[in-house]
Design goal:
The complex is a heterodimer of chains A (202) and B (657). Chain A is α/β, with parallel strands linked by helices and 202 residues long. Chain A has one domain (23-41, 51-201): Rossmann fold, CATH 3.40.50.2300. Chain A is 36% helix and 21% strand. In chain A, the strands form two sheets. An eight-stranded mixed sheet of chain A has the order 3-4-2-5-6-7-8-10. In chain A, strands 1-9 form a two-stranded antiparallel ribbon. Chain A is globular. The N and C termini of chain A lie far apart (40 Å). Chain B has one domain: TonB-dependent receptor, beta-barrel domain (Maltoporin, Chain A), CATH 2.40.170.20. Chain B contains nine helices and 34 strands. With 657 residues, chain B is mainly β. Chain B is globular and about 85 Å long. Chain B has a 22-stranded antiparallel beta barrel. Chain B has a five-stranded mixed sheet with strand order 1-6-7-4-5. Chain B has a two-stranded antiparallel sheet with strand order 2-3. Classes of the chains: A alpha/beta (202), B mainly beta (657). Chains A and B meet through helix 1, helix 2, helix 3 and strand 8 of A and helix 2, helix 3, helix 4, strand 7 and strand 14 of B.
Chain lengths: 202, 657
């Protein structure tokens, strides 16, 4: 507190945590790699002409990190990015439960992967609302905040010694009918399994 | 003139040398990645897991968005610099003029008005104000900590009176040590050299409980005497012993307590001249210095945007020499609270009280009247950070109000505008008013010259505060992830500056406020992470001073003297290079213009250091300082006889376990 910087600049902490573009470029590359090791069994005969959609919740600066994905292909299919904007705005719309939200929800469910940034308006809070809305919908929910897995997310990024690591909720993966190959699982820092009774308790 | 030329030559020569070093470095480190975005997408997960994020830390980001001319020295900068003391470290800050007078005295300032008794800086160590109320300057010989435990040194050039109060006229230096939790384990460090004859430090950190950590430390150094301009040995040998501790306790998620204290004891040698018409002799002396302090702080965090802190400290200093004897006790209590008032208003306010009492000796040359004095300072401040456009435009306005025993109430307002169009650009502008209130020396001191007829200069109780109105703009830009530039421009208007005037009662001069003037200048800093193993940092500053005296002033020399007391141009370039995984090569080149008042020619200084990481936690360093010449002066006679800065070599071992 008596340090000068917080006094002089007193930037809201929110802003401060957001800065690393590099970190998000790395995470975007991780997400691209995940797709190679995950199967969506409900797509038994995937349409090769249809792209695999990666949804991104977060401001445009972070969505930019996913730009290189557009030129990539996985399993012979193109990749597409769908922006959903800030989490806060999404949440407001969800509260109102208006037609705009219903449209959004449909679009969210069409994504194969949804990456939820927790760096700005979300500020280190678990996006419980989105997770609930997409429970069991087959979307690979990727987050970057402590507690993301416990609330039902599938893959969560953590930073350890300045390096990016990920952890997996295997129960949630099953619930979403996602098949995560063992090559990927064995690289996870932690595999989290939900207690069977947890759902009942909630 | 020839010295100027040879200095320019040396400067050019070493610059070429540095560039050559750089070329070699590139060859050494060619495997370094360019870090482009496509790279990540070509990597496997295993490879990605090995990439460092280099997360921009909160303080780094805050630094980028600070609406003031700020420079931060990191612990890495400090470790790699090879410097052994806090004042020497400040050489690396663009715009800060460090002139070493002898082996224990420095003249340090930013933006002009330098001298042994420079009195326009506010210096803090872990929240404790360390400039002396005796003359508002800093006794640099006793401002020390274990350098390995410094987390960072923040230096703000320009006034910061609104938050920090009186004396923050030309700058603030804030030395911040690491939390006890970050200094666990044992560290032993020691070495010897041609000038730093012997130095050693020891620190041990441990756990006191579930959430409480402590450290204790001790350090000692013995510094060799320097030489005078005629190459005779100087009388300035120095030694000091220092011990201290720090405890940090996270009582809960939101409550944090700190308790820390230091004790020190040392000897600082010097030679002074007793002079006046007809009399001229020199005398050697040794200041016996001693002091201790204890500080406690409680911080409570309510949310990301709201917290409060309450701090108390007691500080005792003693200094005894032939010409000056002083002991002083200071009690200080400070409260600060930060919160969000309305949407878009981040408010910070605080209250402070300081009591300082001194006891001075009536010496052969100096007398204070009264010889003992207690002073009180009451202060309060409020500052509002107003978000005008989210994430884009902010206005920060505030003022400090202080009541002191010399001039009564003082207002120190400021307004700062901060424009942050994106993550790579920051533009700021500010207007600030700050004051330096009169001090004991300028008010109550009589300096007796032993002369015939007797002459003296005396302090004045009618002094007003010295005032600055400062207009600043600054721009920071990160054109690439590995490149950073920081520009600042300032125009300062000073008024009521101290100058000695003829005293009608004859044979004496008396202090008055009849000088005024303008200064302007710029500071530029650049950082370039050339590749993974090579970092370059540089700084340049320019200063122009125009001083005037009022028509009624009888002092005909002070204006031109003040103008000629600070160098116009300063430059430095620092290279931090990792030759191999376990070998570091650090080089710094400094250039400082001539200081006409002191008759010191411009100089170029080259420091080089090689550090070998013998084992994971063991380093061995060889450091060469001032390699380009045998010795050179950085300051002239200014109260004490100045020595020259000699070429020096030292070796250092650091072991952590």
């Amino acid at each position: 507190m008596f340090l000068m910087l917080p006094l002089f600049a007193a930037p809201p902490a929110v802003r401060a945590e957001s800065a690393s573009e590099r970190e998000h470029k790395i995470k975007a590359a991780f997400v691209y790699n995940f797709i190679k090791f995950i199967d969506w069994p409900q797509e038994k005969t995937p349409d090769k002409n249809k792209p695999i959609t990666i949804g991104v919740v977060g401001s445009d600066t972070f969505v930019k990190a996913f730009d290189p994905v557009k030129n990539k292909q996985v399993k012979g299919r193109r990749l597409a990015i769908k922006r959903f904007g800030d989490w806060d705005k999404l949440k407001e719309s969800q509260k109102k439960n208006d037609s705009a939200w219903k449209e959004k929800l449909e679009a969210l469910k069409k994504c194969r992967v949804l990456f939820i940034c927790s760096c700005e308006s979300g500020k280190n809070k678990v996006p419980v609302e989105i997770i609930k809305a997409l429970k069991g919908s087959g979307v690979l929910l990727v987050g970057e905040v402590p507690g993301f897995l416990e609330k039902g997310g599938v893959i969560n990024f953590v930073t350890e010694n300045k390096k990016v690591r990920f952890e997996v909720n295997s129960t949630s993966a099953k619930r979403n009918k996602l098949k995560i190959r063992s090559q990927l699982l064995k690289l996870a820092k932690r595999i989290y399994k939900e207690e069977p009774s947890e759902d009942a308790k909630n | 003139m020839t010295t100027e030329k040879s200095s320019v030559f040396k400067f050019g020569f070493t610059l070429i040398l540095l560039i050559l070093c750089g070329v070699c470095a590139r060859a050494f480190a060619e495997e370094a990645r360019s870090g482009g975005e496509e790279d990540f997408f070509d990597m496997s997960i295993e490879e990605l897991m090995d990439v460092e994020v280099i997360t921009v830390s909160r303080s780094e980001d805050a630094l980028f968005r600070t609406p003031a001319a700020i420079t931060v020295l990191t612990s890495e900068d400090i470790r790699r610099s090879g410097h052994q003391s806090i004042p020497e470290l400040l050489r690396m800050v663009p715009g800060v003029h460090v002139a070493r007078i002898d082996s224990n005295k420095w003249a340090i300032t930013a933006r002009g008005f330098n001298g042994l008794y420079a009195e326009k800086l506010l210096v803090l160590i872990d929240g404790r104000t360390v400039y002396t109320p005796l003359y508002s300057g800093v006794y640099w010989d006793v401002q020390d900590v274990m350098l390995e435990d410094i987390e960072r040194i923040e230096v703000v050039k320009g006034p910061g009176g609104t938050l920090w109060g009186a004396n923050a006229v030309n700058g603030i230096i804030n030395i911040i040590t690491r939390k006890a939790a970050d200094t666990q384990g044992t560290l032993v460090s020691g070495g010897m050299g041609t000038e730093e004859k012997g130095f050693s430090s020891f620190r041990h950190g441990g756990k006191l409980g579930e959430n409480a950590y402590y450290r204790v430390y001790a350090k000692y150094f013995n510094r060799d005497e320097a030489i005078y301009s005629d190459r005779s040995p100087a009388a300035d040998s120095t030694d000091a012993l220092r011990e201290g501790f720090r405890i940090d306790w996270d009582k809960s998620e939101r409550d944090h307590f700190t308790l820390q204290g230091d004790f020190y004891k040392g000897h600082s040698g010097l030679r002074t001249r007793m002079t006046s018409p007809g009399v001229n002799y020199q005398t050697d002396d040794n200041s016996d210095v001693r002091g201790w302090n204890i500080l406690t702080r409680w911080t409570r965090k309510y949310s990301d945007t709201s917290d409060m802190s309450l701090q108390f400290y007691y500080d005792r200093t003693e200094r005894y020499a032939v010409n000056l004897g002083e002991s002083r006790d200071t009690f200080d209590i400070d409260f600060q609270h930060r919160f969000q008032l309305l949407d878009g208003h981040n408010l910070i306010w605080g209250l402070g009280y300081r009591h300082t009492g001194d006891n001075t000796d009536n010496t052969y040359t100096v007398a204070f009247n009264p010889s003992n004095r207690n002073e009180e300072l009451f202060s309060g401040f409020v500052q509002d950070e107003i978000t005008i456009v989210d994430d884009l435009l902010k206005l920060i306005v505030g003022t400090k109000v202080e009541k002191n025993d010399y001039t009564g109430y003082e207002f120190q307002p400021s307004a700062r505008l901060l424009w942050t169009p994106d993550e790579r650009n920051t533009l700021w502008a500010s207007f600030t008013r700050a004051v330096s209130t009169p001090s004991r020396a300028y008010t109550h001191m009589t300096n007796k010259f032993n002369s015939i007829p007797p002459m003296q200069f005396i302090g004045s109780s009618n002094l007003k505060s010295q005032e600055v109105k400062s207009y600043e703009v600054g721009y920071r830009v990160k054109p690439k992830d590995n490149l950073f530039f920081d520009f600042s421009l300032f125009y300062n208007e000073y008024d009521h500056l101290y100058a000695q005037e003829n005293n009608p009662t004859a044979f004496s001069t008396i202090f008055d406020n009849k000088m005024y003037g303008e200064t302007y200048g710029t500071e530029i800093a650049a950082h370039w992470q050339v590749n993974e193993s090579w970092k370059l940092a540089g700084g340049y500053s320019f200063l122009k001073m125009q001083m005037h005296t009022e028509n009624s002033s009888t002092n005909t020399t002070i204006a031109s003297r003040t103008e000629r007391e600070s160098p116009c141009n300063m430059f430095h370039l620092n290279s931090q290079l990792n030759l191999q995984d376990n070998l570091e090569f650090n080089t710094t080149l400094y250039y400082v213009d001539s200081v006409p008042h002191w008759d010191t020619p411009s100089y170029t200084r080259l420091d080089m250091g090689l550090t070998w990481h013998i084992r994971k936690n063991m380093d061995f360093s060889i450091i060469g300082q001032n390699l380009l010449d045998r010795s050179h002066p950085e300051s002239g006679e200014d109260g004490v006889i100045a020595t020259e800065i000699q070429r020096a070599v030292l070796a250092r071992v650091t072991w952590e376990f």
